[in-house]
Design a protein that fits this description.
Blueprint lengths: L1 H4 L2 H9 L3 H9 L39 H23 L4 H34 L1 H9 L1 H13 L1
Helix pairs in contact: 2-6, 3-5, 4-5, 5-6
Bound molecules: zinc ion.
């Protein structure tokens, strides 16, 4: 109860001390970038509105998470290209066998990596834009009150 009512100073301190390595680890573990305890996703594609531990808001303006597609695309293209080249030239696997596998990988991997790309985007954004992350923390109360209002309606 006390962690939910007065988390702001500790979390702002945590974001202020957030290192690149911590941001990357929290992003890759699908955890809150502020406290590393709360889960980001409630299921495969849906995020929580805020952290269950520190109330850090995960809600962002429309189009914010479009940037995560860059991470997802970059990882998919890099992995596909490197694997294709290694298997084709290093191990002599026939191109006819590689193409269907590479195509299947290009369809399946982005779906699996979707959550990680979003989480990494949010965590790295908190690392590079600490002022924006602090605003998300200060807006947690308003999000909570908004959900209370919508619950009453
Ligand atoms: Zn948190």
């Amino acid at each position: 109860m006390t962690a939910a009512t007065q988390p702001a100073p500790e979390v702002e301190f945590s974001i202020g001390k957030l290192t690149f390595r911590q941001a990357f680890q929290r992003g890759f573990r699908l955890r809150c970038p502020a406290c590393s305890r709360g889960k980001l996703f409630r299921n495969w594609f849906q995020m929580h509105g805020c952290c269950s531990n520190c109330r850090f808001s995960y809600e962002r303006p429309a189009g914010y998470f479009l940037g995560s597609t860059y991470i997802n695309y970059g990882c998919t293209a890099s992995l596909t290209t490197v694997t294709y080249v290694i298997l084709l030239f290093g191990f002599g696997v026939a191109r006819e066998r590689l193409l269907p596998i590479a195509l299947a990988f290009c369809v399946i991997f982005p779906l699996v990596f979707f959550r990680f790309a979003r989480s990494l985007w949010l965590s790295l954004d908190c690392y590079f834009d600490r002022a924006g992350a602090s605003e998300a923390m200060s807006g947690a109360g308003s999000i909570e009150s908004r959900s209370e209002v919508t619950d009453k309606l």
